[in-house]
Amino acid sequence: MGFGKVGSEVARRAKGLGMQVIAHDPYAPADRARAIGVELVSFDQAISTADFISLHMPLTPSTEKVFNDDTFAKVKTGVRIINVARGGVIDEDALVRALDSGKVAQHWMFSPEEPPPKDSKLVQHERVTVTPHLGASTKEAQEGVAIEIAEAVVGALQGELAATAVNAPMVPAEVLSELAPYVVLAEKLGRLAVQLVAGGSGIKSAKVVYRSSRDPDDLDTRLLRAMITKGIIEPISDSFINLVNADFTAKQKGLRISEERVVVDTSPEFPIHSIQVQLSDVDSKFGSGVSEGGDISIEGRVKYGKPHLTRVGSFSVDVSLEGNLILCRQVDQPGMIGQVGNILGEQNVNVSFMSVGRTVQRRKAIMAIGVDEEPNQETLKKIGEVQAIEEFVFLKL
Known about the structure:
It is a single chain. The protein is α/β, with parallel strands linked by helices. It has a domain at 5-133: Rossmann fold. The chain has helices at 5-16, 30-36, 43-49, 69-74, 92-101, 121-124, 139-157, 173-195, 222-233, 246-252, 336-346, 377-384; strands at 22-23, 39-40, 52-55, 79-83, 104-110, 128-131, 205-212, 256-263, 274-279, 296-303, 306-312, 315-320, 324-331, 351-358, 364-371, 389-396. Strands 8-7-9-10-11-12 form a 6-stranded mixed beta sheet, with helices on one face. Strands 3-4-5-6 form a 4-stranded parallel beta sheet. Strands 14-15-13-16 form a 4-stranded antiparallel beta sheet, with helices on both faces. Helix 5 links the parallel strand 4 and strand 5 (104-110). It is found in: Plastid, Chloroplast.
């Protein structure tokens, strides 16, 4: 009961012991529970089916004495309750009655008062185990907290994502691990999209479309939205965007980012099938990057754990987003790959990936070329002079 940080860690260990784990928490994201293999259920379903009940909820007006005579009447006979939350979530007199009747077989708790009253029926009950409320003050706990803080600081300085930042999107460690490759994809798509804008300024509206087999309510996209914001803003300003200031900085600069979640029929093993970034009401320096709706539009997905560009405007491509990228719109004819490859090779620019997408055979095509180095202006000029190439753009990743 209560599926926050402590509750989810208890669930993880219970799963390791071979237990079937269910949880009740009206505020817990479903993707966190799914990542651990825990089913989120209603309060009544949780108390009526559990053999062991572990309490981790805060003490609020809605949880005060939530375990009372009515509640104990619904639990399984012989249930065992572990209360590591607050004593006030249980009606102590009702608990004593449940213990006396055998409805509750065993109760573990920390003492709500230290030292406990000598005449406390609950503390003195033979089916109750009481421990001091000193878990955070032990030598081992203090040492563990110090190590965790040091590791978090080092990670933040190295640019790693922090799952425990209090003023950033709170993403559980297991969800953070699952989203990690999509975080890289999100930022790179933002960087690509803004580089397609003529002049690189005047961007007021961006739309992000997430395609996933998961229910939209089960997909927390705050982290991905922050990284797309980072990718759009940083290349055209002196701002440094992080998870804390992303939304605020976007608002300051007049950038409105909307999100859409589309459910598609793909494997639920992966949280996201693809991410699409659309920039509206801007001119493009690469006409082929404009969709039929008039927006700059690019789309990508994670393949083999790496971010890939899969669509530019209405053209399908497939190129790994590593190093840098050259996009060419050309007449679809033989020899184009060789011509551009020779120009790059003469300048010692290494091609890492290449993909061609076309609308109709022998008509128009887009060639996407990944390169390890940044070609000089002379090399780019030679590419643009190839007769069949109608337009091209160099993009830094």
